[in-house]
User: Which sequence fits this backbone?
């Protein structure tokens, strides 16, 4: 894939906010997935019959209890896992038929943890994101070096994620927040139209959570990027996502705006506990808190 | 890369001087000049000293260079695939498979000449391939190769093959079993030039193909799922690299036995100096590994001169403590 400089400039804003309103980034039809074959009468479905769309240019949050299939769903969208059956289309093309490398030019995936055991520098790691855009025609494809264009894109995304001053540092020496930014920069170097993030703020302190959220929001607002993120943090999802997909035991329980989904009855049904819902003082989005602990009568026995 | 190349040429000249008989650098250069002029390594032109130099020491040094380069390169790629800086060509059990193949051939009297160009390297290839297939079958699940089961399969296969090799050497005639034991411990012997040339073509070809995977190996260190999301057909790359590693290791083991730790020590040292990028790490480790084994083998020839120590013992004594050091003080970095 050869890219002109003009194209390079616009790589990150291909799906402009205006054009994106009606387009669908993903169309998912009765998606089913399992890791293990059925055993002892159990079907073992991790995801069972999911149907939903992801609009181009939106931030979609995937939430749900532990083991409800959030991460598996994200990996299926990245084509890291293959579905058992059901169809997935990426911008109108059948995901199952797209070569892996073409998916990688459109979709970037940041896993929850990216432990690195070798001392690659931040720059080298970000440049790995250019791999899917590498020309494969020559015999030297495997050890080909990055082009000037690759380097300039890497510089650009490192500025965007505030990593320029760390370019020569080993990724093993980075703090959690810096490492997460480095992985997002690596994903952005793919020049994707869709960014898939698995728990992007897990294990980060408040300031670093804020940084990551700001980057994600800016990517959507300024570049029209479609973002699908998995989060345990309901308030963060409520505050930063346009729509929220609530999973319960591998099935879609509710999909809608934060106001639709962050509802005491919905949360009670999904998580099995009572919660308090009020409004965020700043933005007015629903805010979820656990109620004050009161010793329950006749529950759980005595210690 | 160029400094490393120059350094290895210089090192060949230095190592040529050492041996049972000390041959000064001036004499070495004289003989090299004569050989270049006459185009012959026979004794009429270069005398007894020349023969020692050109038919014994030089081919053996070149063999060491080649074997060391291969061991270090295979170490690099296995470490990348297993995402563990402690991996070594021996972890997968491919080398003991190759050794078993060769030992079996010696027992059955198939290879008449020891370590010359015979069917022995071929048995090494097949032994290595066999263990690769077995390891792969043991480790594969749902069409994928989980790294932990691969490691475990390698460990198990290694112990089974070691037991078989020990059984084979125990039922050999005493004089043969002594030779086989020496070879197993890791020994370099001067090959004939045609044999060396054939081996070099085969091994350098293998190294070239490995080098083509360098950028993919970089991406694979991010983890398999990340690598797949970056457009790499991970299973295909892994299969290709494991196969090449097995073929290279099989050939190396058949000529030089089990020389351990080169594949672990060298990549670690080179990574400290040049970084982790496999496009640089792989060729640099190859050269460094070659030099390392040349030095180790020169030590093996001269330490107890005129007796020889198997070079595998030297590399194990140098590399073993290093392995322990890594495991004890650096394990938080990769465990």
Assistant:
């Amino acid at each position: 894939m050869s890219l002109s400089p003009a194209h390079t400039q616009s790589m990150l804003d291909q799906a402009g906010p205006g054009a994106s309103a009606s387009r669908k980034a993903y169309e998912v039809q009765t998606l089913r997935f399992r890791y293990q074959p059925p055993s002892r009468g159990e079907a073992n479905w991790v995801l069972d019959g999911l149907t939903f769309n992801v609009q181009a240019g939106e931030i979609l949050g995937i939430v749900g209890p532990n083991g409800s299939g959030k991460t598996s769903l994200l990996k299926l969208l990245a084509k890291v896992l293959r579905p058992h059956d059901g169809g997935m289309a990426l911008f109108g093309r059948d995901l199952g038929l797209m070569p892996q490398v073409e998916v990688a030019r459109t979709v970037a995936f940041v896993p929850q943890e990216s432990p690195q055991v070798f001392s690659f520098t931040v720059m080298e790691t970000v440049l790995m994101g250019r791999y899917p855009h590498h020309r494969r025609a020559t015999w030297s494809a495997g050890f080909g070096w990055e082009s000037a264009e690759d380097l300039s894109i890497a510089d650009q995304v490192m500025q965007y994620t505030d990593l320029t001053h760390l370019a020569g540092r080993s990724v093993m020496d980075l703090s959690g927040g810096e490492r997460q930014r480095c992985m997002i920069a690596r994903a952005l170097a793919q020049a994707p139209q869709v960014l898939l993030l698995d728990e992007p703020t897990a294990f980060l302190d408040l300031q670093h959570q804020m940084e990551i959220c700001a980057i994600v929001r800016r990517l959507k607002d300024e570049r029209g990027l479609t973002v699908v993120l998995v989060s345990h943090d309901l308030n963060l999802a409520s505050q930063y996502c346009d729509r929220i997909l609530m999973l319960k035991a591998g099935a879609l329980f509710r999909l809608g705006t934060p106001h639709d989904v962050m509802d005491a009855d919905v949360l009670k049904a999904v998580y099995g506990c009572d919660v308090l819902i009020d409004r965020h003082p700043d933005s007015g989005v629903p805010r979820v808190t656990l109620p004050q602990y009161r010793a329950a009568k006749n529950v759980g026995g005595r210690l | 890369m160029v400094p490393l190349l120059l350094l290895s040429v210089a090192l060949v000249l230095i190592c040529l001087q050492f041996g049972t008989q000390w041959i000064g650098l001036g004499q070495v250069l004289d003989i090299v000049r004569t050989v270049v002029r006459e185009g012959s390594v026979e004794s009429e032109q270069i005398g007894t000293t020349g023969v020692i130099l050109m038919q014994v020491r030089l081919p053996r040094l070149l063999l060491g260079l080649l074997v060391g380069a291969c061991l270090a390169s295979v170490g690099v790629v296995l470490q990348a695939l297993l995402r563990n800086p402690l991996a070594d060509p021996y972890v997968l059990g491919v080398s003991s498979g190759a050794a078993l193949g060769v030992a079996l051939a010696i027992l059955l009297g198939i290879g008449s000449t020891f370590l010359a160009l015979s069917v022995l390297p071929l048995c090494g290839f097949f032994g290595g391939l066999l263990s690769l297939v077995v390891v792969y079958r043991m480790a594969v699940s749902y069409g994928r190769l989980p790294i932990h089961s691969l490691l475990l399969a390698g460990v198990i296969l290694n112990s089974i093959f070691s037991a078989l090799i020990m059984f084979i050497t125990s039922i050999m005639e005493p004089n043969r079993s002594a030779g086989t034991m020496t070879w197993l411990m890791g020994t370099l012997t001067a090959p004939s030039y045609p044999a060396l040339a054939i081996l070099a073509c085969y091994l350098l070809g293998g190294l070239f193909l490995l080098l083509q995977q360098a950028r993919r190996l970089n991406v694979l260190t991010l983890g398999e799922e990340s690598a797949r999301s970056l457009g790499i057909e991970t299973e295909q790359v892994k299969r290709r690299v494991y196969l090449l590693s097995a073929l290279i290791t099989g050939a190396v083991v058949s000529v030089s036995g089990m020389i351990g730790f080169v594949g672990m020590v060298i990549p670690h040292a080179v990574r400290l100096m040049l970084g982790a990028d496999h496009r640089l790490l792989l060729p640099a480790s190859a050269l460094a590994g070659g030099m390392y084994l040349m030095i180790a083998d020169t030590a093996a020839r001269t330490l107890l001169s005129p007796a020889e120590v198997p070079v595998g013992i030297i590399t194990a004594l140098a590399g073993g403590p290093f392995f322990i050091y890594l495991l004890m003080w650096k394990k938080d970095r990769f465990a």
Remarks:
- Chain B is about 75% helix and 0% strand.
- Chain B has one domain: 59-334.
- The two ends of chain B are 31 Å apart (CA to CA).
